[in-house]
Each structure stands twice: as C-alpha cells, then as structure tokens.
Design a protein that fits this description.
The protein is mainly β. Helix content is 5%, strand content 51%. The strands form seven sheets. Strands 1, 2, 3, 4, 6, 7, 9, 16, 17, 18 and 20 form an eleven-stranded antiparallel β-sheet that branches. Strands 5-8-19-10-13-14-15 form a seven-stranded antiparallel β-sheet, with no helix packed on it.
C-alpha cells in the first residue's frame, strides 16, 4: 500500500489506484502531495507518470530506483499535473547518489521532463529549469543549474556521493525559481547548506501543458519522500532577505525565520551578497502572525545591522527583523548589513635616553603603511593607506584599519631619524598581516644613541655600568 498524502490527508492506494477519488489526469490543476514510494512493484499513482524514453524506474517499496548504466538509459518521473508554473510551490525530494562520473548525476526540476538525445539524454527537451547535483568524481561534487539550455555551474563540494535533500521554490508572482540542497541529509527539517538563484522562468515558455515537476537519472540513483506544497497567493506571506557586506565579502551566511504560527516553508537558508532568499509562510491566522528574521550567529569581525520594512508593521534591532500582525498577502523585506570592524594598531615610540640631556635631537618621523585596505582613518592612495606622525621623545600613536575579507591586507612601520647618532629598532619593520576579526595590534620602535660606535645606555644602564666598574676597581686594590 502506497502512502500518499494530499492537502494534509493520507489516503490508501492499492495497486496504484486511489480508493477515494479517480486518478489525476494530465493537465489537471497543481496540488500539494507527499509520496514515500512505499508501494512495491508499481508506479505510484494517481499523481506521477513515467515520461517517455530510457529504462523505467523501479519501485521496491522503499524508494524509486533509476537503473541502467549509459546515458540513453536515463529516464524521468513527472507529475501528471502540468501547470505548476501557475502557482507558487515548494518541492522537496531526497536523493541518494551512488553512480560515478557524469552517469551519476541526478536531475530535479520543472518542465517537460523528457530526455534530449543530442545532449546526453538530459531533461532538456522542451521547456525546462532544473538542478543537477553530481557525485564526488564529477566536477568535484559541484552543482549545475540549467535554465532553458543555459548552464550555471557551481564548483566545489556542494553535493557529492551520498544522500541529500533537494528543494526548489517557485514564485508564481515573480516567475522565479530558487534551488537549495541539504547536503548529507540524515532526516529531520530541511536546512539549506547551499542555495542557488533565483532564476527568471518568465521567458522559458512555461504554460499549462509543460510545467510538470520531474526528477530522474540513471546508474542506480534512488529518490524518496517527495513533498510538493502548493501555496495559494491569497493565504501566504513572504519575507525577502537581502545581504549587504560593505566589503563585498562573498561568504555564505545562514539566515533563519521563526514565527509564532503557520508553516515556514523554508526555515533556514544560505544567503550571500547579491543572492537573496525568500521565506514563505502559509497556514496562519491572518493578523495574528509574528515572525523574526535573523542570522545564525554574529560574524567574527563584522558589525551586523538589520533593517525591516514591508506591508506588515515591523521594527529591527541588533537581534534581527521583527514583524507583527502579519496578514495574508503581505510582502516584507529584511536587509542584513555587515560592516567590517576596524582593527586598532598602536605604534609605540621609546627612546633609551633623555635626548635633551645628551644634546641629541629626539625628533623622528614615523610612517605606518598598509596595503589593500577596505578603509581606515589614514590618508588613502589607491587601495593603500598611510599614517605619518612627527614625534618628539616617547609617544604612542594609534591607527584604525579596516582589512579586506580576502586576508590581503599587509602593514609595516618605517621611521626616519633626524640625528645620525641614533639607531632605530622596529618590531614591525617587516610586513605583517591584518585580518578581519583580529585583536588590537602593537608595534614597538626603540631608539638607541651611538657615540663612536658605543651605544648610549639609559639611566638605569648607566648606574649598573658605574657599579660594575667600582666592583672591578675594588678587586684590583685588594690584589695590590
């Protein structure tokens, strides 16, 4: 018996025929559904169909397996409903990648869902917008998004061999799709480890006949626990989140939404500079919903500021964006701004003598130079910054440096002495790195006076020298 849940109700299915209502026909309106593929030996129904081509998927009562070894063996399952583009939805599915090289890649998306023989039998026939994770030994476990023939590749260990949960979120109002992956999924709530998009689907040619939700592959790939949640626009609220690093840091940061009611369709997503995300909340009591949007934790070396706006009453503080009495259809925005915290550098000048007593000019010019800075309180030249201090005697001067996120900021200290009898020693003569989140730094410049090659000692050094000489003289007298 197959466990299919529709609109929150579970129905028994025997031999692929629903006991409570007739099978859905192609072109029927999109619906919410859940399929766990627990019906062994037959195609789950009445909501899915095998698309043409390849070797048909097998059902063992646990999951859907796509057999075969070659590209022509690729096949796809798709929803009978073919007009999902007309409504906003979130679709999740669990996939286990066990194949190797290109044959191990899997596909999950919206469109016709049929193989294109001229392109390795990928689901590029007709309209399509899909995500393609791969195994470890294919592009390093990277992910590809294909938008009507245009490929967007994201390298790195983002998927790989193993079990993951995939998500695609379609916004029917903006006609945009966002994909996400929960890498190394082991059950529980979906928390995106990476997200991709949004992608403009308004020019893909989707209509009521070609916007199925589909998935498939080859080489023993398995799929399980398909969930499609359709949200009626009149009964949802959206929360767009935008990220702004003032130094254009490309790092990904996890952002969350927490509400007192309803169903947040995405509870946690990865957000980056220029790549915002959207949270959709449904099934709540209009006018009573309260939500908070916030980052997972403070980012080391950055000061975080939240700015809330939108249809619902809102405010923001250091903890996040806060929304109250949210109503159906409200569209809200939370902008998260991260500003680099400056790093303080103290330049300490010490003389080993009292210059006026020896007739030595203890004036010096000290220059702190930093390369590749994001900002600071010095003089700017291109991407570098300088601080110049004219010192007399002992002094401490301080600078504030905003380093770059890529660890390319380097600083050093130079000194120009007025009197030739002075020798300088600096702890920061060599270049040193200044990174985001570094603690306060200090540089010590110590100056000594030389007369005819003999260094001058400070007051305490002179006392010790006199005592030492007296001690040697006493020993000589006793020997006489």
């Amino acid at each position: 018996m197959s466990g299919i849940s529709v609109h929150g109700r579970t129905f028994a299915v025997v031999f692929g025929v629903c006991l409570l209502f007739a099978a859905q026909t192609a072109g029927a309106a999109p619906i919410s559904l859940t399929e766990d593929f627990s019906n062994a030996g037959s195609l789950p129904g009445p909501f899915l169909e095998q698309s043409p081509g390849g070797i048909a998927a097998a059902f063992n009562g646990i999951n859907a397996t796509f057999p075969g070894t070659l590209a022509p063996d690729r096949s796809y399952l798709r929803t009978l409903a073919s007009d999902y583009y007309t409504t906003s939805f979130v679709a999740d599915i669990t996939v286990t990648i066990s194949g190797t090289a290109g044959g191990g890649t899997v596909f999950f998306g919206m469109g016709v869902g049929e193989p294109l023989p001229s392109f390795f039998y990928e689901p590029r026939a007709g309209q399509h917008l899909f995500v393609r994770p791969g195994p470890d030994n294919f592009l390093g476990g990277g992910i590809n998004v294909t938008d009507q023939g245009l490929d967007h590749h994201f390298p790195g260990d983002l998927s790989g061999t193993g079990t993951h949960r995939l998500r695609m979120s379609w916004d029917a109002l903006t006609q945009e799709m966002t994909f996400a992956i929960h890498q190394d999924y082991a059950g529980g709530p979906f928390v995106a480890s990476s997200s991709f998009g949004p992608y403009d689907g308004s020019d893909n040619g989707f209509d009521a006949t070609n916007s199925h939700i589909f998935f498939g592959g080859v080489a023993g790939t398995t799929f399980d626990d398909l969930t499609i949640t359709v949200a009626e626009q009149s009964t949802i609220a959206t929360f767009d989140v935008a990220k702004d690093f003032d130094d254009d840091n490309p790092m990904g940061v996890q952002v969350f939404i927490s509400c007192n009611d309803g169903l947040p369709i995405q509870s946690g997503q990865i957000i980056r500079e220029g790549n915002g995300v959207t949270f959709v909340v449904e099934r709540f009591s209009t006018g009573e919903l309260e939500c908070d949007v916030f980052e997972e934790q403070p980012i080391t070396g950055y000061k975080t500021r939240y700015t809330a706006s939108g249809d619902a009453p809102s405010n923001s503080d250091r903890e996040g964006c806060h929304y109250t009495t949210v109503e159906f259809g409200d569209e809200n925005l939370c902008v998260v701004t991260n500003k680099v915290k400056p790093v303080d550098i103290d330049v300490i000048k010490e003389w080993q003598f009292q210059g006026k007593q020896l007739g030595i000019d203890d004036t010096a010019v000290i220059v702190l130079e930093c390369l590749n800075v994001e900002g600071g309180n010095g003089e700017i030249k291109n991407s570098d910054m300088f601080w110049v201090w004219k010192t007399v005697g002992d002094e401490i001067n301080s600078a504030r440096v905003k380093p770059r996120w890529d660890d390319s900021t380097l600083c050093h200290v130079k000194e120009r002495i007025v009197d030739d009898a002075v020798e300088s020693d600096s702890s920061c003569e060599d270049w040193f790195a200044v990174g985001v989140g570094d603690v306060r730094k200090s540089c010590l410049i110590s100056d000594t006076v030389f007369f005819e090659g003999i260094p001058m000692l400070n007051h305490y050094g002179l006392v010790m020298l006199v005592l030492l000489m007296l001690g040697i003289g006493a020993v000589g007298v006793r020997r006489l």
